[in-house]
Design brief:
By secondary structure, this protein is of the alpha/beta class. The chain folds into five domains: 196 residues, P-loop containing nucleotide triphosphate hydrolases (Rossmann fold); 128 residues, Rossmann fold (3-Layer(aba) Sandwich); 107 residues, Winged helix-like DNA-binding domain superfamily/Winged helix DNA-binding domain (Arc Repressor Mutant, subunit A); 100 residues, DNA polymerase, domain 1; 100 residues, ATP-dependent DNA helicase RecQ (Arc Repressor Mutant, subunit A, Orthogonal Bundle), CATH 1.10.10.1390. It is built from 35 helices and 17 strands. Strand 3, helix 5 and strand 4 form a beta-alpha-beta unit. Helix 1 crosses helix 3 and helix 30 packs across helix 31.
Length: 734
């Protein structure tokens, strides 16, 4: 086996990796490790962190232990190291995926001096048998990758990481190396204190990835936007990040249905499936991976060109680390995030019930994400400032490489509006949520407003010239500016901060962003439908207006709300894809076979005549591309409903949660199948409530559950409204 103990670092670099020169701070870091010193490395993704411990490990006697949080990361790095050597045992991994014979081989290679790098999960490192074995080996140093996991202020805190220093001391007195791509000054100090390396030399590279373009868009028609964006970057490798496993599968299905080679990746898959997806991405058999946060950490793919966040992440560090997987080769990288305040509200709900300290940290991290999404300043400048780095947006590298720099947002003097909001929060004893404050200012009298006699207060209607959206936008931006805060323990009531109270005493000019810039999320139920070939709205505006007119006529004839006939997104898609048969119409988002048969004939006749009269060449390749959700248990669910089995029991019988079953039933009904769940509804909802909710859906212009919840102002839970919407569509629409 070749050793490099007598080589100079540059010589070893050329010999093992084929590179002639080090990148950035790499040589300084490596020299410090070779000298046996503790080392702290803060280097952005793509900066070459791995080489900082790989090369010293090859050059020093013994084995370097690399503590790493993810099996996928370890596998990728072990494969890469073996690719640089003809010795299979040069790098090994110890984690839960190995069997007894594989672990025996690892130990044999280490004792024989073959292994230079041993990758260990923190959970495996703490096992007594592994500690005992490592005591018998020659260890050169310990490298802790993803060291931000140590800090409670980090974005991915893992308690087991806090024990690493104690474990190292049990093995031997060893030099320690900590590496991370994201660490604010506060997180950095926390890591150093925990590892007992406050005096370690710190090597900090610039966080500026000047080849990356940063963009944030309102989360409206997000599925359509992702399709269009990926198609504009056809053939390029990309990652779409989602917060839930279910969403990764939905978006991947959507991409595939629209001719894009894509796969989903999440922790619910077994290791074989995950490895297969990872390998296909590396080998370019697929272009896009739709993944949860786990994907991409340590993946050595330098040519990722697109990183999309379907959901805004829980922390700014996560966002920076995930976007950093784009353009690692120095080539172009486009980082697109979709933002909706409603997504932030969902993340806030996850914090409820956690220890107060954890809530406070979680809220601070979330507010940084909100601030970034809603800021009007250069996103690059904001990002670098967060990590303690100054940057000039005029002359700095990467200037102009973000949406705010290229298309500045509209700013307005909000001083008086801010005073009004703060006065209103204070007047009502800081015991209400943003919705209540907005209703009071707009002069909207509902049950909550009248209960607290807010309709008699002098501030009632004080801001009625503006919409509730305007006032909600003001409050979101005041949260970001720390003039108000949300109390998670009391489900989001607004409190004035010291800065907010000071502003009320001595107001000063405050500029905020126009609220139109802040988007609302799609209804997830519609996400996998209605994908169109062009920008927003229908491709053929004339046909779309004709279809709307026909829908109005049919709705009057049948005495039904227009959306029951066909939703507006469905009409837009018809005006893009020009379906002329029942089969084609049933593939339009939100239609399905049953609805196509029930209402379709007049619409198909109109479209066919329009196509012929205007000599339109139909885009056949678009007609069957909407990825309709399919119920994997459709037949079983229909049979069980026919037998009048309670829905809770049906859910257990197919191995689903009750909520998942409701999702599937909605999918079945949406596709045009009639399901009679009246027997279950009668046990859950009294007759008067049924009549009231049915009347609402009959008169409403939309079946959106959020709007229904707002209309009933909390009188009915979401579950009740969803059950009644199923009944409504089954009886009236299908």
């Amino acid at each position: 086996m070749i050793t490099a103990t007598d080589m100079a670092p540059k010589e070893a670099l050329k010999y093992f990796f084929g590179f002639s020169n080090f990148k950035g701070l790499q040589q300084d870091v490596i020299d410090n490790v070779l000298a046996g010193n503790d080392t702290f490395v803060i280097m952005p993704t793509g900066g070459g962190k791995s080489l900082c411990y790989q090369l010293p490990a090859l050059m020093l006697e013994g084995t370097a232990i690399v503590v790493s949080p993810l099996i996928a990361l370890m596998k990728n790095q072990v494969d890469a190291m073996r690719g640089f050597s003809n010795e299979e045992g040069i790098a090994h991994v110890i984690n839960s995926s190995l069997n007894k014979s594989e672990i025996a081989q690892v130990k044999k290679d280490m004792l024989n001096g073959k292994t230079k790098l041993l990758y260990v999960a923190p959970e495996s490192l703490t096992k007594e048998e592994n500690i005992d074995f490592l005591r018998t080996c020659k260890i050169s140093f310990v490298a802790i990758d993803e060291a931000h996991c140590i800090s409670e202020w980090g974005h991915d805190f893992r308690p087991e990481y806090r024990r690493i220093k104690n474990i190292i001391q049990q093995i031997a007195d060893l030099p320690v190396m900590a590496l991370t791509a994201t660490a604010t000054p506060k997180v950095q100090l926390d890591i150093q204190k925990n590892l007992g390396m406050v005096d370690a030399k710190v090597f900090k590279s610039s966080f500026n990835r000047d080849n990356l373009y940063y963009e944030v868009r309102a989360k409206v028609n997000v599925g359509k936007q992702i399709i269009q964006f990926v198609k504009c970057n056809a053939g390029k490798s990309g990652i779409v990040y989602c917060l839930s496993r279910k969403k990764t599968e939905e978006i991947a299905e959507l991409l595939v249905a629209n001719g894009i080679k894509a796969l989903s990746y999440h922790a619910g898959m077994d290791s074989h499936q995950r490895n297969d997806v990872q390998d296909k991405f590396l080998m370019q058999d697929v272009d896009v991976i739709v993944a949860t946060i786990a994907f991409g950490m340590g993946i050595d793919k330098p040519d990722v060109r697109v990183v999309i966040h379907h959901d805004i992440p829980k922390s700014f560090e996560s966002y920076y680390q995930e976007t950093g997987r784009a353009g690692r080769d120095g080539g172009e990288g486009h980082c697109l995030a979709f933002y909706s305040p409603k997504d932030v509200e969902k993340l806030e709900k996850f914090l409820h019930g956690k220890p107060v300290a954890e809530q406070e940290i979680g809220m601070l991290l979330l507010q940084e994400v909100m601030a970034y999404a809603e800021t009007a300043m250069s996103r690059r400048k904001y990002l670098l400032h967060y990590f303690g780095e100054e940057w000039d947006e005029v002359t700095g590298e990467g200037a102009g490489m973000d949406d705010n720099s290229r298309k500045p947002k509209e700013i307005f003097d909000a001083t008086e509006d801010v005073k009004l909001v703060l006065e209103c929060i204070k007047a009502f004893k800081e015991t209400h949520k943003a919705k209540f404050i907005a209703n009071v200012l707009c002069g909207i009298n509902n049950a909550e407003v009248s209960t607290y006699k807010a309709d008699k207060h002098k501030l009632f209607g004080a801001g009625k010239e503006e919409s509730d959206k305007h006032w909600n936008a003001i409050m979101r931006q005041l949260l970001v500016k720390n003039l108000i805060r949300k109390e998670i323990e009391t489900y989001g009531t607004l409190k004035l901060t010291a800065e907010g109270l000071e502003f009320l005493k001595s107001p000063f000019k405050m500029d905020l962003v126009k609220e139109e810039e802040i988007g609302e999320t799609d209804d997830d139920g519609e996400l996998i439908h209605a994908i169109k070939a062009t920008g927003s709205g229908a491709a053929d505006e004339t046909l779309f207006l004709m279809l709307k007119e026909l829908r109005q006529k049919v709705s009057k004839e049948k005495g039904l709300p227009p959306y029951v006939i066909f939703s507006e997104p469905s009409l837009e898609e018809m005006a893009t894809q020009y379906p002329i048969t029942i089969d084609e119409l049933s593939h339009i988002g939100g239609v399905g076979k049953g609805k196509a048969m029930k209402f379709g004939s007049a619409f198909l006749a109109l479209i066919k005549k329009y196509v012929e009269d205007n000599d339109i060449e139909r885009p056949e390749d678009f007609v069957l591309k909407s990825a309709h959700a399919k119920s994997s248990h459709k037949i079983k669910i229909i049979h069980n409903v026919d037998k009048r089995i309670p829905l809770n029991d049906i859910a257990k019988g197919i191995g689903k949660t009750y909520t998942d079953l409701i999702d599937e039933i909605e999918t079945i009904v949406h596709a045009g199948t009639r399901l009679d769940i009246q027997y279950f509804i009668d046990d859950e909802i009294d007759e008067d409530a049924q009549d009231e909710i049915m009347e609402y859906f009959m008169q409403s212009e939309t079946d959106d559950i959020l709007e229904a919840e707002e209309y009933f102002d909390g009188d009915y839970e979401e579950e009740i409204l969803r059950l009644m919407r199923i009944k409504f569509h089954s009886e009236i629409g299908n």
